[in-house]
Amino acid sequence: HDGGRVLRGGAWGPDALLPLELAWDPKLVPRAAGGFDVVVIGNRTESPSGQDFPVFYLQFRDGGWSAPVEVGGAKVDSFFGSVWDAVQIASDGEERVFVTWPVRGGIEGRWVRVRGE
């Protein structure tokens, strides 16, 4: 959950640490030129809206991260339910990604317009 490294042209780049203190369950979609779009579950202390399990969207471009943007809050009704592995991201191949996360009683989703390459 600290981040990772990007493999580009057969060589590993430097560490790409997430700009969040704590981020779990990252899901990503690749972009051209070694970039990608990521959605993660953060923690309450990082949530501007006070969500227990905030869902953050981030971009990785040109070797650096964008500021995290809170797009929602993951929740489940069941005592045994879990938000982990339930947040997803998909790309339309152009300038939008679709992010989904569990909420009480269903699934919520949001289109996010992304910066081109």
Alpha-carbon distance between the two ends: 26 Å
How many alpha or pi helices?
A: 0
The biggest beta sheet reads: 5 strands, antiparallel
> Structural class of the secondary structure composition?
mainly beta
Shape: globular
Unreliable sequence segments:
none
User: Helix share of residues?
Assistant: under 10%
- By DSSP, the count of extended strands is 10
Radius of gyration over all CA atoms, rounded: 14 Å
User: Whole-number average pLDDT?
Assistant: 81
Descriptive account of the structure:
The chain has 117 residues and is an all-beta fold. 0% of the residues lie in helices and 52% in strands. The strands form 3 sheets. Strands 3, 4, 5, 6 and 7 form a 5-stranded antiparallel β-sheet that branches. A 3-stranded antiparallel β-sheet has the order 8-9-10, with no helix packed on it. The protein has strands at 3-8, 11-17, 24-30, 36-41, 54-61, 64-65, 69-73, 88-91, 96-103, 106-113. β9 and β10 (106-113) form a beta hairpin. It has no helices and 10 strands.
